[in-house]
Design goal:
By secondary structure, the chain is mostly helical. It has three helices and no strands.
């Protein structure tokens, strides 16, 4: 699953009710959070398999490393996206 698919999936699964007071910005932040939660769960599961089940093979450790790096990438991307959009919204609000 690509990173974009993770984010799109989280956005698609974000509840969208007509009586919601949340903004699209909040929905995006929630989607990022859900994508990060799923990735953290994946890392936790792999770590348990390696540690508790004795699956300390080089391939398993390499896969765990790759998933950890993916988590770092997702985390940095979410921070950048939310910060950039937040700054843009702030600028737009000042100009109105």
């Amino acid at each position: 699953m690509t990173i974009n698919n993770s984010l799109y999936s989280a956005m698609a699964n974000t509840p969208n009710s007509d009586n919601s007071d949340g903004s699209w910005f909040e929905a995006m932040a929630e989607a990022w959070g859900e994508a990060l939660d799923r990735q953290a769960t994946r890392i936790e599961t792999m770590s348990t398999e390696i540690g508790d089940q004795g699956n300390e093979t080089p391939s398993a450790i390499t896969q765990l490393t790759a998933e950890s790096l993916k988590m770092t990438f997702l985390s940095n991307s979410s921070h950048t996206a939310l910060s950039s959009l937040g700054s843009s919204l702030e600028t737009m609000a000042r100009k109105q």
